[in-house]
């Protein structure tokens, strides 16, 4: 794994409110692995894992059930890997919502690989606010993703409204 500045491994979360795990800035080169996060499908605004303004983060081998995004990436994320994650139900794996604020940092270098997404509204998506400020999302890789009973397997939403 190399040098890690933070590791959250073998974590089980029960009935968390808003974000089950939030990672905001600092501690680059961190792993979040083997998280079990069950939240009811009807729970609102309960992202499983939210990462913002961070780099070198790996989300690995996790099972996330939520009423919102299983994994969400905010502005300022770079070199992010999401791998071997199971997501059901919820809104899938999301970049954004972006563009609500002026001068948000770019999102770049994101890889989502070998994930299974079942019974969700979306599979993988990029979402921006209506009439959003300019921003950059680049170098995105979605590989070997299995989707079952998913409304929108891949979605770029230019007018996201929660």
From TrEMBL:
Active site (catalytic residues): 91
Broad class of the protein's primary localization: secreted
PANTHER family per UniProt: PTHR31375
Subcellular localization(s) per the UniProt record: Secreted, Cell wall
Record flagged with keyword Ion transport: no
UniProt-listed SMART domains: PbH1
SUPFAM superfamilies: Pectin lyase-like
Native species: Acer negundo (Box elder)
Gene Ontology terms: biological process: carbohydrate metabolic process; cell wall organization
InterPro entries: Glyco_hydro_28, PbH1, Pectin_lyas_fold, Pectin_lyase_fold/virulence
Name recorded for this polypeptide: Uncharacterized protein
PROSITE patterns: POLYGALACTURONASE
Keywords carried by this UniProt record: Cell wall, Cell wall biogenesis/degradation, Glycosidase, Hydrolase, Secreted, Signal
One GO MF term: polygalacturonase activity
Signal sequence interval, chain numbering: 1-16
Keyword Endoplasmic reticulum: no
One Pfam match: Glyco_hydro_28
Protein family membership: Belongs to the glycosyl hydrolase 28 family.
């Amino acid at each position: 794994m190399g040098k890690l500045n933070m590791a959250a491994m073998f974590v089980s979360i029960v009935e968390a409110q808003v974000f089950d795990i939030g990672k905001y800035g600092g501690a680059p080169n961190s792993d979040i692995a083997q998280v079990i996060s069950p939240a009811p499908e009807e729970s609102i605004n309960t992202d499983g894992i939210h990462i913002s303004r961070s780099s070198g983060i790996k989300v690995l081998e996790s099972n996330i059930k939520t009423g919102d995004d299983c994994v969400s990436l905010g502005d300022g994320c770079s070199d992010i890997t999401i791998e071997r994650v199971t997501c059901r139900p919820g809104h899938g794996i999301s970049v954004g919502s972006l563009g609500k604020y002026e001068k948000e940092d770019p999102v770049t270098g994101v890889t989502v690989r070998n994930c299974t997404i079942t019974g969700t509204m979306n599979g993988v998506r990029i979402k921006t606010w209506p009439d959003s400020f300019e921003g950059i999302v680049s170098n995105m890789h979605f590989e070997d993703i299995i989707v079952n009973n998913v409304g929108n397997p891949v979605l770029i939403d230019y007018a996201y409204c929660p």
